[in-house]
Every structure is written in structure tokens, then in C-alpha cells.
Design a protein that fits this description.
The structure is a single chain. The chain starts with a strand and ends in a 5-residue tail after the last helix. The chain is built from 15 helices and 13 strands. The longest helix has 25 residues. Helix 1 packs across helix 3, helix 5 crosses helix 15 and helix 11 packs across helix 13. The chain folds into 2 domains: 149 residues, ATPase, nucleotide binding domain (Nucleotidyltransferase, domain 5); 184 residues, Nucleotidyltransferase, domain 5 (2-Layer Sandwich), CATH 3.30.420.40. It is globular and about 55 Å long. Strands 5-4-3-2-1-6-8-7 form an 8-stranded mixed sheet, with helices on both faces. It is of the alpha/beta class and 396 residues long.
Amino acid sequence: MKAVVSLNSGSSSIKFSLFVLEGDGALQLSAGGKIEKIGIAPTMIVRSVEGGVLLERDWQDGAALTHADLLAHLFAWAADHPLKGREIIAIGHRVVHGGTEFAAPRLIDAALLDKLEALCPLAPLHQPHNLAAIRAIAALRPNLPQVACFDTAFHHDKPEIASRFAIPRALHDQGIRRYGFHGLSYEYIARRLAQIDPVLAGARVIAAHLGNGASLCAMQAGKSIDTTMGFTALDGLMMGTRCGSIDPGVVLHLQTQLGMSPAEIEDLFYKKSGLLGVSGISSDMRTLAASKAPEATEAIDLFAWRVAREIAALAASLGGIDGLIFTAGIGENDADIRSNICRRLAWFGVQIDELANAGNGPRISMPDSPVAVLVIPTDEERMIAHHSLNVIGTGV
């Protein structure tokens, strides 16, 4: 039986899913898991599609183990377990930044890797680790096709005006522009919405990908029109540890008045701000919700306020709004945050059904709400698998 692996490699973690290709061409999730705490004390867990633990291992003294070392352990184990009797025909990777050139998934070769390496300064927390996993697998299985699936690609054809900063044209032409991210998630949501509600899918919809990284996307008939993230994944909404949009004058002040270096500012904005920075407690929304500290409440309210504010702004890009979709970790699982956001949009025509919001969805708005509100779980891994099979010519 043929299989494809979807892989999402970060700085300290690797998430992976194994899909098998059924006789009718459908993709069936078979197993998945993650490697965490890379560089500290790595742990690995693999679960079957039913949720059973297939492998659980840790390396308490494994701080020196690299992405390549840990992927080698995974491949060695998989050869005799879930992959036994299955042929991996491709590995698809989430690659955060595709720049101006890459608007569709691509088969990876040395020339492509060089071009993607040049984009690392635009996604310093993600791109280097995406590419490290690609190189590691190329060393382990040099003849195995690997496919790059770009998080920026979904936004590539948005209106030109939505890609511009108000800076000299020469800088825009050099690539300093608004790209947008979380594209694999939004692409999946657009496809899934077309199955759930084809009429709404053809209308004006704002999707809210709310997790440790968070953004919004305004879609018209399933196509990206505008989005909150811009040149980097630092822009837009407040996130777990990222500040989101900020006055450029703050950057100048930190440099000229407080004497901070570019590296220190980068660390501050990417790793010490957002929910963590405002609360001083945690970047995890669940931890903040359980806290009685006023700083935790303020962080939650600021998050909801920023999301509602940006939803209203994106509605202007669409010329109105017919639907609002919540997805990703917070968006899918935190009914209180959804309620907090929707209450701030009541003037806007959002009428949430609190009983439905506390349930399983997908529709959580009142029947007569002018704006339909849905909760749709995202599946970036399935989107990656789909693209990978298409690229190597076994599309489904």
C-alpha cells in the first residue's frame, strides 16, 4: 500500500502524519505524532488514528541530538512498525516562506533549496528548521521525492494593493511586501467550507486561525483577498509570544533610546511579547484562563479585542461579511474566546448561539444571524499530503 508523509518541522519540534492511499484514491490518516523539546531533552510519541500509543520515547540526555538524528530514529522504528508493508512515495513539508516566486507546491531539488535558504531572513524562526528537516531526510532517503508546500502560496494572488507597504516602490520591487501566512490552513478551510456550505463558501468569509501563531484571512469565493500577517509571521494579531502589529516608532525607540540591538529586539518581539509579555505568566491561553491574576484577564481581553478589531478591518477589504470561521488550537477549542470575540462584533451582525458555541458545531450562530459563524477544524497535514501527491503525479 502506498503512503505519503506530511511533516512540519519547527525550531524545537517536528510534527508528522502518515496517510495511506486507498483504492478509490482517497487519503486515509493512518498514524501521526510529534517530536518535542529538541535541543533540550527530546521526546517522541506516535499514535494510531484511533489514538493508541504506538511509540513513546524520551532522551533525557539528548540535548545534542539534532533534527536529523531524531528523524533517523523515527525512520528506523517506522520501517518495522506502521510502515511495514507500505511504500512511502513522497514526503511533503510545510515551508513557511515562498517569497514572490513560489505560488504552488514544488518538487524539491538542490536549486530550490538554495532559493529557499535565501528567504530565511524573512522567517527566521521557521524557515531554517523547515529546510533542516528536508536536508535530513535527503541524507536518509536520497531517492525519496520531497515536496515543498508554501504557507505563503494561498495569498500569492491577492489584490496588488493588499500586498503593498507605503514605502518607496524600489523596496517593494526588492520583495519588501505583505505576503501573508497560514495559507495551508486557509486553503483547507476554503475546501472544507465548500463541502459544508457551498453557498457561504462562494461569499465573503473571514477565517480566524487562532493558535500560538494567529492570523485572519479575508476570502471571497474561497480566494484570499487580504490577511493580517504581512512581510513576516510577526505582523498582525497578538499571539502567544509575538507582539503582532506595532508602531515602527517603538522599534526606533528601543534602538536609539534603550540601546537594544537588532537581535535583542527580534527576541523581544518574537519570544517575549504577546500573551506571555502582557500577562507575565504564560503564552498558553488555557493557563491564563485558569489564572485569577488581573494580568491574565487583561491579556485575554487584549487578544479578543485585537481579533475583533482586525475582523472589522478585513470586512472593509471584502466590502462586507457573510461568514466568520474559527479554526486552529484556540479557535477550535476555546468557546470562551469565541464568545468574547463575537460579543465585540454584535454591532456587526454577529449573533452567537451560546449553547451551540459550547457544543460541537460546526455552526454556532443564531439561525437568523446576518453573519454565519462556524467552527471548522483545520488539517494542514492533509493539505500537504494532497499537494505532495499532485506534484509527483498521483493526485487525489
